[in-house]
Amino acid sequence: MKSINQFLVLWLLLLFCACETDSENERPSPDNPKTLVSVQLSTDKSAYRPSEEVTVSVSGRLPGNCRVRCRHLNNILADQEFSGSEWQWTLPPDEGKAYLIDFYKRKNGEETTLASIAVDANSDWTSRPRYGFLSRYDSRLSQEEIDCTLDFLKRLHINGLQYYDWHFKHHKPLKMIGKEPAESWQELSKREVSFEVVKTYIQKARALGIASMSYNLLFGVWEDYALDGVKKEWLLFSDAHQGSVSKHDLDDNWAQSDILLTDPSNKFWQDYIFTETEAIYKHLNFDGWHLDQLGDRGSVYNFLGKNIYLPLGYESFLKRLRNRFPSKKMVMNAVNQYGQKEIQSAPVDFAYTEVWEPNGSFKDLADIIKSNQTVSFGKKSVLAAYLNYNKADHQGTFNTPAVLLADAVIFAFGASHLEMGEHMLGKEYFPNQNLRMLQDLKDRLVEFYDFQVAYENLLQDEGEWNEATVEAQDLATTVQAWPPQKGAISTVCRKTGQSQVIHFLNFSEANHLSWRDADGTQSYPNKKRNIELAIDCKASVGKVWYASPDYQKGVAQELDYRIEDGKIVCTLPVLQFWGMLVIE
Q: All domains of the chain, ordered by start, with CATH?
């Protein structure tokens, strides 16, 4: 559960559609004064199943000699002339494969990439979760605003949404009037929630291939719990003698109630909240439950005075939840990894971590992802990691290089980042939208998410972390193995199938190594060109290729190379934030 602070007034003052363009005070890349996108691509859905037809729509003007090409990794599957404003392609029947579609032109033997877009084919979205959120559901929200939000999330290939604080009371999530849902209600922070808006979001998201997850604590009740049939015997206490109920205190002027905690292992509580959840599923077609907690609560006790170890209670709760709703997805927040091992011992669908201190370095992010991979037996990870945290106390803009560096690290280590909804997240209270995205960040996010999807089979398929000795031939460039150091390019190496993958993460101009960049001071990395490398290699080499969200719209480029003294010598054409070298 996110700790809640006083953002309600600011939120009411700052309501606007996520599609609004921020053109003023843009902070561009040193190499790229402003990203001007002359051609934009979109797909009819955010995510697909194998053998589905994909429709790619082109907005903007393409030259008459344009071609369209589709590839899986570095293997071209289709290449043909293109004219018009749409291109349709039927996905292969292969499960769990990703593809990059690019539009390009040839002139005098040279290729220029004009635009690209990724697609993937997964029958189960949780096998490759790209998680977003929603946080506003009031009746003033227009259909245009709903469509605007979903359209940008679709362009980022978001395939699952967490409906933050959509519910009424934690112990009575769907407000009912008799046997029918109420038209509206006030959630905890006294914001209006329209039943019809929630229902519309679910329906429209599903049509785009985006799943919807109902958000709620697994063990929270309001102070009027007894009126709704919750028993005091189900609560948690801060001492063995029932002196005080364990609770999450909230400002009375802001919230309708403090949040009191129940014992998650108590079967009577489980049955009660499962019945309430069944009412949700009867009236709202959510795909599952995003369960939240409150982190380490210290020593807590049940009604009989027995000390309760909460993570075992989580495991018990989740196992029974799966039995009660076998067709519904479930994922649970491990707040700063609290209880993650027990959560992953239950049949949750992926690992989710809300990252807090002391996990403040880029290395910490990577360690969390690796730990999740181990305790979850290979399930994928999503990190709720809030950028520019202090800056988000006031109105302003996100620091573009900080967001992109964090995403580069999270994606390179095979995880996803919960950061996008109606706006980008800067705080644990999701409705906070004090910080806006500049246009350069919006444009680069599209490129980064395309890259994550297009190369997910190298980023997220089974593999082994390893090390490769990489040296820069230019003395002015420093390349060092992970973890990162200021002033150096850091390498992250992984063997996947027959491919040796080497990620290059550019910290050459970084002025600190805190992923959160709390005050928004991280600097832009300069774009480096023609970096000659020597890489130790003991195996035979078939081909060497390179792809980067910084270069040629992410399209793979086969590199010339030579073998000298047991080393592959090749040249990376461009690196700004993140590039990926693949040796087959």
A: 8-24+124-457 (3.20.20.80), 48-121 (2.60.40.10), 464-583 (2.60.40.1180)
